[in-house]
Design goal:
Blueprint (H helix, E strand, L loop, with lengths): L1 H20 L9 H5 L1 H14 L14 H4 L14 E4 L11 E4 L1 H7 L5 H18 L1
Antiparallel strand pairs: 1-2
Bound molecules: zinc ion.
Length: 133
């Protein structure tokens, strides 16, 4: 049981990494992460600690079932883990330009809201979902 969960977690994290690495044919990923997945995983783990395991924007869990119910946002392997969001859409996926966001926030922010704008939107999302609990 434990072992299977560990494997599934690694698979999900790998799919997070793949999305970062393969974004626009690898053009959007910094060389450090492209060449060395371990650098990415270390960054991810540090960032999870720094954000207390919560989304940068709404401060809710990366596991969407905690706040959106079991059907909610889960699509393939998404909605289980915090995802990597580029603060500035014109920049690369790199340690300086990235934070961790839940799938709904990452999806909604897309390339159309700036980091600063989405901090405000995320706060509203967090409050709305917080009240529903
Ligand atoms: Zn969020």
């Amino acid at each position: 049981m434990h072992c299977r969960q560990g494997r599934e977690n690694r698979r999900r994290l790998y799919s997070v990494y793949r999305r970062v690495k393969n974004s626009k044919g690898e053009e959007m990923c910094c060389e450090e992460w492209r060449r060395n997945p371990d650098r990415f995983y270390t960054w991810y783990a540090d960032r999870v600690k720094e954000q207390n395991g919560l989304c940068e924007y709404c401060h809710l869990s990366g596991d969407t079932t905690d706040n959106y119910g079991s059907k909610g946002f889960r699509k393939s392997r998404r909605g289980f883990n915090l995802e990597v969001d580029r603060k500035y859409a014109k920049g690369l996926y790199s340690p300086d330009n990235c934070v961790l966001a839940c799938y709904p926030c990452n999806n909604a922010k897309s390339d159309v809201f700036s980091y600063e704008e989405f901090l405000k939107i995320g706060e509203a999302i967090g409050k709305a979902k917080g009240k529903l609990k």
